[in-house]
Design the sequence.
């Protein structure tokens, strides 16, 4: 496996404290490397000059010829050892929001410079996706309304992860067609998933997890049609949002006394299942395209801690999704509102696949 | 004097929505320009791909061949007109912490790209004035309840940027004490801010911007106390959230017929001012410590487009904050709900300074 040593720049630019900005700039221009390392008299790295620092100098009208580099250098410098992995160097860059990391040996002497550009350009540098293939035991997951984008997306992601997926629909024919398609999609990338199909009322019977990827308006009818298959020990996931277009063309929420998830909860709790609200703000368009990674947070709300934990585990099994505990089911309302806000922002900025992260 | 037109890159890289990351990368590699402009089908600029975005894609194991550019592009894009001064372009870069600004003509068509590198390399580009953090003219900003953390934070950030700050309080003594403290804080980092103090009812009179950093319960009393100073042309910023602790110890929202911001709007609109909701989810603890950078999104909601634009500009003047247009004032309700959700998540994960970003 490639390490930092393999792709670091070895003929990096160096200046020492007291050198002028002009000196650093000349070296950067001549070498076509956008960074210069600043050393102190003991050859220890104390700063970096980047194009950004030069811009700052210009903005402050610092004369390049007479201003010493220490006036504008960035510090402290982030360093890495030469035998570190490429993943580690990426982590350092992403976490510190920097594009260059100084490479040092065991005596803290500078031996190179690793840049974001070098990593991007290195075709052999494969970053291993942290897909945990060990998902623990597989769950039996019924996806109600599983023929839509959101349902298909979850089926693909969890089917790929080894779970047993049951695609539910009001039309058996439709469900079978979609199940076949999804199996085909996963077969084409070398996965043999367990994806079956059935009527909504049938697939819920054996399911441990029931995902309602249905419109808000169908909640009552749907629950009446599956109620005979509901029982204790099951978890219902509600990503349902009562979206409503306003007169002004803005997306909004149909305001009710309670949220969609709380409605599901009140209607089904007497029969046994727990309800957990999740997946509201994950763009369905991304979800349904297995080649698209998903780099979002999924906030989960629910009253039963155990069920919430199971759902959070299922979320964390989809690469790059981060489950966050959003408290009790009462907070599902916020998640539903948030969906309409995200849709509006996505439209405004022409980014339909918008999602969010807490930082 | 040189303008943006003289040093912009005219043969910039372009991709359109739906193009792959690989396509953008190829163009960047071939041209030796580190940035690609993303256009929509109407040739409007909707994003930028930088080396940083490519690194992110690599870190997330996004396949370059099949992932469309919109998945990783940076947005919204900062633009400048071609006859603007070099100083202006530097200001935009420094304030937004970006290295590239897209140059547009009067029809908002992309005509070029101006980079930090080009500015640094342009020897004829003499910067006459030291670039301050303020873009355009300073505003007169009254901060009502300005003695709290949120108020002090905004005063520091905008005071540093050159705006004229009026700290308002019910107690003149308190307001004066805090104003002196804030001046001291900024003096210690070499800034001479314009921060004054007064009674709430006094400071609003001359203010162009009035920020209500007050508890929900004080809205009515406060507005009654300042109403004689309100008039047309003023903008009221409402970050107010009707927070309420639930019996279970979870943070929640006191549910009313309308949001706090809408309440402010209804009470003040007859007197002239516009109301804009903003700053709900920016952690006050971070805001009030000037040495802490803020890397968050600020969603702004309001009915008057012009006022919203002014507030978004004021937000973008605080380094690393990104304003996002969240639509009409009706959406303030979502922002208020979101605050309680963020507080709960922050507590759960022991990160009181939690905020969020749309991606």
Sequence:
């Amino acid at each position: 496996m490639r390490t930092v040593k393999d792709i670091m720049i070895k003929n990096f630019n160096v200046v020492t404290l007291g050198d002028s900005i002009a000196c650093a700039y000349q070296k950067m221009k001549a070498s076509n490397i956008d960074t210069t390392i600043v050393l102190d008299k003991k050859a220890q790295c104390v700063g970096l000059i980047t194009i950004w620092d030069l811009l700052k100098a210009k903005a402050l009208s610092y004369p390049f010829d007479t201003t010493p580099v220490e006036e504008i250098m960035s510090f402290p410098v982030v360093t890495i050892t030469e035998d570190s992995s490429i993943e580690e160097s990426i982590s350092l860059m992403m976490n510190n929001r920097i594009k260059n990391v100084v490479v040092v040996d065991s005596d803290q002497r500078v031996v190179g410079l690793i840049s974001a550009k070098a990593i991007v350009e290195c075709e052999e540098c494969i970053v291993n996706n942290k897909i945990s293939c060990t998902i623990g035991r597989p769950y039996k997951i019924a996806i109600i309304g599983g023929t839509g984008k959101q349902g298909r997306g979850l089926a693909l992601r969890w089917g790929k992860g080894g779970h047993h997926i049951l695609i539910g629909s009001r039309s058996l024919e439709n469900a079978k067609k979609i199940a076949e398609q999804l199996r085909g999609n996963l077969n084409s990338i070398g996965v043999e998933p367990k994806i079956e199909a059935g009527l909504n009322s049938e697939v819920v019977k054996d399911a441990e997890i029931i995902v309602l990827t249905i419109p808000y308006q169908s909640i009552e009818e749907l629950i009446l049609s599956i109620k005979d298959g509901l029982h204790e020990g099951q978890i219902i996931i509600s990503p349902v949002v009562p979206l409503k277009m306003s007169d002004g063309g803005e997306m909004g929420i149909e305001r009710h006394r309670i949220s969609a998830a709380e409605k599901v909860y009140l209607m089904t709790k007497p029969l046994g299942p727990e309800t957990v609200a999740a997946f509201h703000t994950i763009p369905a368009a991304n979800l349904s395209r297995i080649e698209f990674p998903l780099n979002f947070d999924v906030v989960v709300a629910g009253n039963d801690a155990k069920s919430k934990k199971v759902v959070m585990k299922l979320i964390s099994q989809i690469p790059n999704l981060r489950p966050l505990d959003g408290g009790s089911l009462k907070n599902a309302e916020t998640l539903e509102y948030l969906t309409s806000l995200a849709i509006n922002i996505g439209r405004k900025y022409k980014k339909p696949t918008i999602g969010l992260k807490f930082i």
